[in-house]
Automatic annotation (TrEMBL):
Keywords: Membrane, Repeat, TPR repeat, Transmembrane, Transmembrane helix. It comes from Paractinoplanes tereljensis. The keyword Transmembrane helix applies. It comes from the Bacteria. This is Tetratricopeptide repeat protein. The keyword Zinc does not apply.
Length: 386
């Protein structure tokens, strides 16, 4: 098999999702020529798609060393760096890819995503629009525009771009997922869950369980803000009651209203979602699952405390509800931490950070030892230095 045969065969296998075979063929080709930049870049892409981000970055770095002027290699490096949460380096790599191949829309698209990850949304939108102008019928370009617009908070523009992509490729899994998540952000619960269920049914090997539990996680996200603000207002009214007696009555009314709002919002989201989020909940990473279940329990207890305060007028119930707000925020941080540990990019970023801390600590200890050994020793009783 020639190098070209190995490259095209591996590329075709990768395009249909047969990543293990694509990796094997690419490695077989590299065994004969380890410095083939095209095969190294393709292998890096396959490893990235297999979520082996650190190995993908090492491989594409080798490709750049073999062919420093390969725009594809620099673009692939930017993709890897994005997944490893190294946004500034990704912008630099994507900028180099655009410099080397200014007429290739792929470099502009990865640069747009990299800029969006640094929250430079104005430039990201300009670059994405320019990339789309170079390939108006490109599904990847349209979905990049949709991603950038969604990150920038422009849901209507994001939806329009995603729908344009699906008009070209109605079976595109990412485009359908993106539409479902945009529906979720608008609280179109039934349509969102229907879209996510269809995507999972068509891709049973890689179901997005975290997305399919968004109604539960979304409820907790909204309720922790509402509980914190509402319970704080109730307690403020109770304090004001020392000077204005009607404030105590207002606090009880506010507790009843807050409990009704929290319960109503929960029902508004969870009832239309049906059974799917609850079926996916046990399949989440353990820490995330426990954080979500504990969060739901805390919300239920907080609502009971607010109802008890509205009925009895005991200030302790309101204070207890307020103290549950930081518990909810703590559980949300546990959920985020679990999501990070479940993502290979974040896991590698944590490892890199830990490695940098260990290196810093070892260097600091060495510098302290050297500084201590260079310090003049105090004189002895005879005035001589020891």
């Amino acid at each position: 098999m020639t190098f070209d045969d190995a490259y095209w065969q591996a590329q075709r296998l990768a395009q249909v999702g047969r990543y293990e075979e694509a990796e094997r063929i690419a490695r077989d080709g590299l065994a004969a020529d380890p410095q083939d930049a095209r095969l190294l870049t393709l292998l890096a892409s396959v490893l990235r798609l297999r979520r082996e981000y650190a190995s993908a970055l090492l491989t594409v770095t080798a490709a750049i060393e073999a062919a420093p002027h390969s725009a594809d290699a620099h673009a692939e490096r930017a993709e890897c760096l994005l997944l490893l949460i190294r946004s500034k380096e990704a912008v630099e790599a994507a900028t180099e890819a655009v410099r080397l191949a200014p007429n290739d829309p792929a470099g502009h698209l990865v640069l747009a995503r990299a800029l969006a990850s640094t929250r430079d949304y104005d430039r990201a939108r300009q670059v994405a629009a320019y990339g789309l102008s170079m390939a108006p019928r490109s599904v990847e370009a349209l979905l990049t525009v949709a991603d950038v617009e969604r990150d920038a908070g422009n849901r209507e523009a994001a939806t329009a771009a995603a729908q344009a992509a699906l008009a070209i490729d109605p079976e595109n899994a990412y485009g359908r997922w993106l539409i479902a998540m945009l529906d979720a952000e608008r609280l179109n619960v039934r349509r969102s869950m229907r879209g996510l269920r269809d995507v999972a049914r068509d891709n049973p090997a890689r179901p997005d369980l975290i997305s399919m539990t968004w109604p539960i996680r979304g409820v907790l996200s909204g309720l922790r803000r509402g509980l914190a603000v509402g319970a704080l207002l109730v307690c403020a009214c109770l304090i004001a009651g020392h000077w204005w007696t009607h404030a105590v009555t207002f606090a009880r009314i506010l507790s009843a209203v807050l409990a009704a709002v929290l319960a109503g919002f929960t029902a508004r989201v969870l009832l239309p979602a049906g059974k799917l989020p609850w079926r996916c909940l046990p399949l989440l990473p353990p820490l995330m699952r426990r954080a979500n279940i504990a969060g739901l329990a805390v919300v239920a207890v907080a609502v009971l405390f607010l109802v008890a305060h509205s009925v009895t007028g005991g200030w302790g119930w309101a204070l207890a509800a307020l103290l549950l707000a930081p518990v909810l925020w703590g559980l949300s941080w546990l959920e985020l931490l679990s999501a990070g540990f479940d993502d290979p990019g974040y896991r590698q970023a944590f490892r890199d950070l830990a490695g940098e801390f260990r290196e810093w600590w070892q260097t600091t200890k060495k510098d302290l030892r050297e500084a201590w050994s260079d310090t003049p020793k105090p004189p002895d009783r005879n005035g001589d230095h020891r």
